[in-house]
User: What shape does this take?
Amino acid sequence: MWHCYWRLSWYPPLSYDYFSLRPVLFISFSILEPHMNKARPNRRLTLSFTDYALLAYSACIFLLVVLAYVLALCGKTPHNPDDMALNVILGKPLQDGFILGTDYLGRDILSRLIYGVEAYFLPGMLAVSIATGFGALLGALAIISRKRIRQLINFTNRFLQIIPRLVLLLLLIAIFEPGIFLIMTVIGIVNIPSVATLVSARVEILRDKRFVDFARSCGAPLHAIIFKHLLWYNCRSLLISLSAIIMAEAILLETSLSYLGFGTQEPTPSWGNMVQAGANYLLQGDIWSSTIPALAIMLVLSALYLFSHTIVRILDGK
Assistant: This one.
């Protein structure tokens, strides 16, 4: 705080004695500094029962996914996902000790469902980190940088936006046969323009606000203005919401590729290839092998989308 007054004291006196008001400026800054990081005042938000229910639902699904991932890492599942019980093929739930039944090879559906979380959890987090990290940085730089740099960033964003994502992934798989981490890296890269566009729109509104002028007058470095005052304090809810949406898209693309046979391959469990394998036995009366993993996909995706919608209302006070 004191360095602001010290900086002003180095300016030479002007003819109209502007800097005779330095103590007044210093006191004013001292009062306004706690509030200058927010572009608008806080509003009291009254959450309805529906909001609490949506948050509780999203939190429960998230905890179940994390628990499944930890159990898969530790190998603490009811059965080995590759063990085959040939006497219980296409078993129904709660039959012979199999909680969710068995598939067409007699493998435990619950154990394979738990291990299937590994197919998208860390790769999905990689896609989210790439998209939100680079997208937020490029979105902020596109507004506060020079005109040529801004034009280059905007051109790159528009170029990446016109590329069909699923077609691009299928093309890369056909040419290079990449692994799941490379696929998620591509998903993160193609989502950078969407994040950058939304962040740049928010930053363009905020860059002329008074709290940015106060930060500049105090000698705050450019990176502090970008990461602290603009992105962290004022784009936080947007980035959290986008992270949930990108994670949902990563799960959907991974399961879609696995369903088509281009993603995770048997015998490694994935929710997508579990749905695809079980769909072949629907006409034989087995509805559990495909509907249970499909229901898991639906629950996780709905939880992510509902969380992204609710968290914006809570953090932005709308």
